[in-house]
Batch of 3 targets.
Target 1
Amino acid sequence: MQGQDWMASDDGQVRACTPPRDWTLLETPYHFHRFLTQVEDVLKETAHEDDCLSAIRHLVRKLALNSYWLQMQHPELSTLDDIAVQTLYDEIGYPLTVQTNTYPPGVASPVHNHGTWGVVTLLKGQEKNTFWQHTPTPEFKDKVMPVEEKVLRPGDVISFSPGAIHCVKAVGDTPLVTFNIYGETHSKARFEFDIKTHQAKNF
């Protein structure tokens, strides 16, 4: 599975991080409930955001490496225009969102942030990420500007700070499949940005 680890920050900058060696992550069986418990432990025990996201990236990589079902079970597309989403765990009061997404080739997301941290790994296909920086002006307080692009491939794992702004597009000829885990969403801090009108709305 070996790929690159990345960290996207609020300022639109993306830095490469050293991933753990695959052999250090091998654990059979590595059940999904163990993954969720270990993520919760990281969130409780790790205070600094960078350390927290680094640890969760490693756990996501470990899950993808050891869980054959994750590679094989993903939401099927019903149309060639819409993203298919499968929630993997849902419990009242549970603060995390855990899901797999399938994007048809060529489909892109709006420019947005998540209002919380997130970690995503690519399972199949390729994803072009464009990262944006919030650049408010007296006239347009929600203006954003593109900073850089990265094409992610299977095995890559990327984490996002709560204010990181990006958009994604499935590139290539095959559907894009991703595994996603997000912290507790703060809806008032989650926005979609219109790059033509320089306005934002809750997303």
Target 2
Amino acid sequence: MKTKNLDLNRAYTFSNFFELKIEAKDLAQEFGYTLERKWLQLPQFQGELDRIQETQSRITEILPYVSLGNETARREFMISPIMHDLIHYAKIEIRIEYKLKVTEQLQGVVDYLIQSPNHVIVVEAKKEDLDFGMTQLVAELIALDQWLDDFPQTTILGAVTTGRIWQFARLDRQTKHLEQGLENYQVPEQFDSVLRILMQAVTTN
């Protein structure tokens, strides 16, 4: 691996890439991948989801009374409701703070690893600075690509979120090409869209 930003004599964790403030595109190139920023217009699940309004209303109700200044609060009140509904509808497995190691340069803790029989999604929770949060997400997507090896999934979806704002990226495993979405999804306002994007990703055959 030819590198300009990384010291191959040291180990890195996913969170190190956030701290180093490396651009997502530059980090992708370090590992032999390409990246472009674009409007993704991700497909959304079109089936009936019978408790979207209930969950959205519950988040809206509590927001005036909860400070989202720490990660525990954001996870408990903003991200967990989405994960709960995803399990309810899709009956999939979600691993929280999952330790993943592929190489000394691709290792660390993934906040949420969502697994269905045919798909894996990664979600990274950040307090702020989603630009470099995207860099960390890119490292996690590349690590998953190598970790999954012969797994049949051809595209890996990932998200970085503050709880209030969600941004998505996806990796084409055949071309080693990453697409960073330009869209910002607001929760609770666009709770429906976020959940339907995740649902579509885990239920597609």
Target 3
Amino acid sequence: MNITMIGTGYVGLVTGACLAEFGHSVICMDKDESKIEKLRQGEIPIYEPGLDALVAKNVTDGRLSFSTDMGESVRSAQAVFIAVGTPSSRRGDGYADLTYIYAAARDLAPYLRDYTVVVDKSTVPVGTARQVERVVREANPDAEFDVVSNPEFLREGAAINDFMRPDRVVLGVDSVRAAEVMKDVYNPLYLISTPFVITGLETAELIKYASNAFLSLKISFINEMANVCEAVGADVIDLAKAVGLDGRIGGKFLHAGPGYGGSCFPKDTLALLRIAQENGVAVRSVEAAVEINAAQKARMVKKIRDALGGSEAGKTIAALGLTFKPETDDLRDSPALTILPPLLEKGARIQAHDPQGMKETAKMFPDFIYVKNAYEACENADAVVLFTEWNQYRALDLQELKSRMKSSIFIDLRNVYSPKQMKDAGFEYFGVGRG
């Protein structure tokens, strides 16, 4: 099948490469000429494990190509995926900005020839598919097409596996014909009995928001339990293990830490709240999750400050990890980049390391000191703060670390190390939810 992917960001590039691996002929189209030229030269604009090799393989095999020409990309396609950005509105009110979605729909419309399925792959509010249909119809009244909602569920750092072996595929359709085309698109998954949820457009659009909101609830819940644990002298690690062993609950996302971040949870929870408010519905649990998450990050600032004796002024802090999670270069709503700036403003010196995030962080925070590895970050440091649980931070040489530090304060915001292990190594240890 001939497939066009409009947008070569995280979702578009991963989806396009994986569909090419399924055997389809895929064109990834973008207006950004410099990005397309770099992709043609084999330069991948994002860090995602295995993506560079997957793209190179399918380009070499002739199934994946890149273009800036909308007409060339759309005319021969049986399915056109819209995978452009839907950032939160600049107004800061939580609304998703659909400017790029509607522009893509308007631009592709004149080139529709035979029957085509236009697929909303971006995360969009309820009702967007209907609006995309209207925009396309207005631009090309004679076009024969259907709009499908096909939300993505890709975890950064594990996106290729998530695509190839998903928990489910969600298809919001209005016609049997569109459903059959989408089954052909995902035929390899259909053959291995991947669950397909085929539903209406509005339900499909809401599923993505509901899923992310629920996971945000789990994170906010365990962070509140961590705070209770600290207050009463309990251990959140043992608590989470016991709670997670309940088959009705499950252990995933029950990991206490500095709060959630990334491209999805912060944006999608706010968007869901706006959808509910517009329709006169209260979603109190999601409101609470958003408030708890903001409070947790503020609490981490206080945790670091208290560990330093009540003031960070004149102190050197070694920051290990800047991205919102390991195995990605994504800095969006990263806890580290919310927690560190207030400390910097109050006179702390920040010595930072991250395997993938330093180049972009330096553009936003040029006053941080960026170093080559974790040990350099700890040189003459008053405290080390572990923000992101990259594998290379999980088995640090603690004696080497301690020998480089001015004092021996270790603040573990991901609970990577055990309190006993750190005490035995001579550290004053502070975890999250470990009394």
